[in-house]
Amino acid sequence: MNIALIAHDKKKDDIVSFAIAYEKVLKKHNLFATGTTGLKISENTTLDIKRFNSGPLGGDQQIGAMIAVNNMDIVIFFRDPLTAQPHEPDVLALLRLCDVHRIPLATNMGSAELLIKGMQRGDLSWRKNKKTI
Ligand SMILES: O=C(CO)COP(=O)(O)O
Predict the structure, then answer these.
(1) Which ligand 1 atom lies nearest to the CA of residue 38?
(2) Domain count, the chain
(3) Does 130 or 41 have the greater pLDDT score?
């Protein structure tokens, strides 16, 4: 599976904790991240991650482009609902594309855990028959 990991600054500690907790599972998949999120995860785990630009510099859009061509299977995006982001339109566009293309999306730790556990038990195997909309 291709999995995107993204977090706003106040949620970086959460995504690092998540990556550490699920490192063994995540290691078996192709991981992608926005710039700073990917850096923090790399510094704290042994995970191999393809890093895109930082979010405000287009990283959300780069991940969105993968979603648009049906090349992303899961998006884990710990967004900060209490802080205005300079690139809010990009954030909304990314969330919107997940819904357009029916890509499983988790925006907090609880839902991310459910997604990963579901993936482990095969709940997302329908993603193997990747069809565009
Ligand atoms: O801003 C982000 C998502 O909208 C995340 O970007 P960074 O991982 O570069 O901090």
Answers:
(1) 8
(2) 1
(3) 41
ipTM associated with this complex:
0.99
Q: Is 58 in the pocket of ligand 1 (CB under 6 A)?
A: no
- The distance from CA 103 to its chain's CA centroid, rounded to whole angstroms, is 11
Residue 61 domain-assigned (yes or no) = yes
Residue 35 beta carbon below 6 angstroms from any ligand 1 atom? yes
Residue 90 bears catalytic tag: no
Residue 28 sits in a domain of what CATH number?
Answer: 3.40.50.1380
Binding-site positions for substrate:
8, 12, 34-37, 54-55, 87
> For residue range 10-40, what is the model confidence (pLDDT) as tens digits?
999 999 999 999 999 999 999 999 999 999 9
In the chain, count of helices (H) and strands (E)? 6, 5
Q: Is residue 115 part of a domain?
A: yes
Domain for residue 43, yes or no?
yes
Residue-number span of the structural domain to which 32 is assigned: 2-75+87-123
List the structure tokens of 75.
């998006």
